[in-house]
Amino acid sequence: MTTKIIHFMVNGRLERAEFGADCSAADVKDLFRAAAEAGPQHILKIYNTSGSVVNVCPQLEANSEDSCYQLEVVATDLQSVVMSAELDNMENRLLHMESKVMEEMRKTPDFICELKQQVECFKRKLETVEHLSWMGLFKDHNEQQLCKFSPDPRTPELSVQEQRQQVRRKFLSMSSLQVTEEVREHLKTPMFDNWQWEEAEMLVLLQVMYTDLDLLTAFHIELEVLQNFLFEVYCHYNSIPFHNFQHCFCVTQMMYGLIWLTDLRSKLGRTDLLIMLTSALCHDLDHPGYNNVYQINAQTDLALRYNDISPLENHHCAVAFGILSKPECSILRNLSSEQYRHIRGGMIKCILATDMARHNEILNKFKVMQPGFNFSDQDHKELMKIMVKVSDISNEARPMAVAEPWLDCLLQEFFNQSDTEKLKGLPVTPFMDRDKVSKPSSQTNFIRFVLLPLFTELTKLFPCLEKHILEPVRRALEYYSDMERASKEEQETTKP
């Protein structure tokens, strides 16, 4: 077995770690944690010789004593992460103001109490961010919950229903707050970082999307009905590594960003915008974490119900219209029968188009139409469902600090499926097999043969997307190609 040797400094001493090429990320982290004499509750950070933070993973480059890494224990737990000076100053000024008011009024006014709660809430949010990779940190946690930290042991664990109701209360309490112009503008770009937002806040931002596109006015949607609809959609996404509510939010946010970047508001009617945005929102409802190939091979209820024809996508559509059939959630209830049929038909086409088995069919049809694309031609407009496809697989168009954690989540879901396939004696999906797939290899072919051809064709229709999505995807291909090449070279040099 090929062995990799890593040299690093920790607590003023030089250490050396050895692990095999097939070692898991968790095992590598355990090696560093043991060297730092740190427990699972500690947060660690590792730097290369140039002072940049690097990922702790089996692909970490081997080095010598002269080019050793620096390993640092950042904090003993999430609650001990140092708050910024600005936040400390804010809290001190609030305490000072409270004492002054107390002197004069003999009691703490309600608005002071509210301010204190907001500061405490913000501090807790900074202390319990769900994903720390954007800060270059890592912390040990359950492998089954790649993007979630374990609940605080000091508080009782809430049931799923209680957690959802807590999210609903937060959402409704924040929904009347004014979202800053800076956030609104950032929401329109692929640069948006989903990892820094809680679920309730994402619901608020989804509300902003519908509001800023003027969809409430155009379709006579009551705000309360929209809020009920968004919350019900949230409740129908499962707690799985990748195809969860955060993924739904990311796809919808990218769809929203593309609408603004390509100025679709001037090219398409409000009905088409409603179809695309709502399709993105509903495109993976009640995803079980196992793809269509598994559904068909395992002969699941979904595969039997839909005769092996896009079982998941058909199910997502059915769940979406089940939610829309509830009067309190029906954002389409004030439309005519004809408008409803048109929107329903458009959403079904958009969601079914996200089945990757139809990728080449849809892309080739778009290639034929693209040179003479006409936004007034209904057949051509229907191909705008390709925008939902692009949004669905757009993670690599985002900054690497946002995109790479999503790849980790996707691989976790893939590996869960291949493990189950092996246990049940089903055909193992090759690109999901943890014994054959590496992080870089999983991406290079996908970017080269799926993303780039699709994004290139869309950029021909919308040249402004060159810098927003095509260039970042090219950089991602270069990043993972370099990672894959380095891994292969290392394996060659370490062969006996």
Automatic annotation (TrEMBL):
Give the annotated active site.
H243
The reply to whether Metal-binding figures as a keyword in the UniProt entry is: yes
- Binding-site list for AMP: H243, N244, F245, Q246, H247, D284, D392, Q443
Q: What is its EC number?
A: 3.1.4.-
* Reaction(s) the record says it catalyses: 3',5'-cyclic GMP + H2O = GMP + H(+)
Question: Quick one: a GO biological-process term for this protein?
Answer: signal transduction
Pathway, according to UniProt?
Answer: Purine metabolism; 3',5'-cyclic GMP degradation; GMP from 3',5'-cyclic GMP: step 1/1
Cofactor binding remark? Binds 2 divalent metal cations per subunit. Site 1 may preferentially bind zinc ions, while site 2 has a preference for magnesium and/or manganese ions.
- Which Pfam families does the UniProt entry name for this protein? PDEase_I
Span of domain PDEase: 156-487
Recorded hits in Gene3D superfamilies, A to Z, give: 3'5'-cyclic nucleotide phosphodiesterase, catalytic domain
A molecular function GO annotation: 3',5'-cyclic-GMP phosphodiesterase activity
Residues the entry annotates as binding Zn(2+) 2: D284
**Where is Zn(2+) 1 bound in this sequence?**
H247, H283, D284, D392
Known SMART domains for this protein?
A: HDc (SM00471)
Q: Which PROSITE patterns match?
A: PDEASE_I_1, PDEASE_I_2
Function, as annotated: Specifically hydrolyzes the second messenger cGMP, which is a key regulator of many important physiological processes. Highly specific: compared to other members of the cyclic nucleotide phosphodiesterase family, has the highest affinity and selectivity for cGMP. Specifically regulates natriuretic-peptide-dependent cGMP signaling in heart, acting as a regulator of cardiac hypertrophy in myocytes and muscle. Does not regulate nitric oxide-dependent cGMP in heart.
Question: What is the official name of this protein in its record?
Answer: Phosphodiesterase
